[in-house]
Amino acid sequence: MAFLPPVTFPYGATHTDELQFLFPFGTNLTAGEQELATTMKEYWTTFAANGDPNLASQPFWPPFSIFLDDDQSLKPSAPKLEFNFANVHKCNFWTAVLLQTSLPEVANQLRNRGIIGR
Fold first, then answer.
1. What pLDDT, on a 0 to 100 scale, did the predictor assign at position 73?
2. Could you tell me the mean pLDDT of each successive run of 10 residues in the chain, 118 residues long?
3. 55 touches 16 (CB < 8 A)
4. How many CB atoms neighbour CB 59 within 10 A?
5. What secondary structure, in 3-state letters, does 17-30 show?
6. What pLDDT does residue 45 have?
7. CA end-to-end span of the chain, whole Å?
8. What is the pLDDT of residue 39?
9. 24 CB neighbour count, 10 Å cutoff
10. In terms of DSSP H, where are the helices of 1-118?
11. Which residue among 46, 48, 109, 117 has its CA within the 20 to 30 Å range from the CA of 9?
12. What count of other Cβ atoms lies within 10 Å of the Cβ of residue 92?
């Protein structure tokens, strides 16, 4: 997050965070971040060429599904699959939004599968 000013709270993931890994404009990446940058470039270029980011030489990146509670984490030094996404990211808020919109059946399916709280 070389482009953001210092603050007294953690930024978390922000828009354009990936740019310093894909286009290192004089940023000083650690060895782990450089390793992640190489992996990310391979994912991005493979996806651009084939519509699928996966290579045998890199951790498998599964397609996203709202019915699975996992996501691909791009934290240095290597990507990995993480679980418990909905709980970690406070998705019960979005359940309430879904229930108030035209997607209550999706929210109910997520609840029934135990992905989000009741």
1. 83
2. 71 79 82 92 94 90 78 84 75 72 75 74
3. no
4. 14
5. CCHHHHCCCCCCCC
6. 94
7. 36
8. 92
9. 14
10. 19-22, 31-50, 85-88, 92-99, 104-112
11. 117
12. 13
Q: Which candidate, 79, 89, 73, 87, places its Cα nearest to that of 118?
A: 87
Cβ burial, residue 116 (10 Å; 0-12/13-18/19+): buried
Decide if 63 contacts 47 (C-beta within 8 A): no
CB neighbours of residue 86 within 10 Å: 21
Please give the Cα distance from 116 to 46 (Å, whole number): 33
* Domain boundaries along the sequence of the chain: 15-83, 86-118
CA trace torsion 80, 106, 91, 37 (10° rounding): 30
Backbone φ and ψ of 42, nearest 5°: -65, -45
Q: Is 95 exposed, middle or buried (0-12, 13-18, 19+ CB in 10 A)?
A: buried
Residue 72 parent element (H or E): strand 70-73
Residue type, 105: E
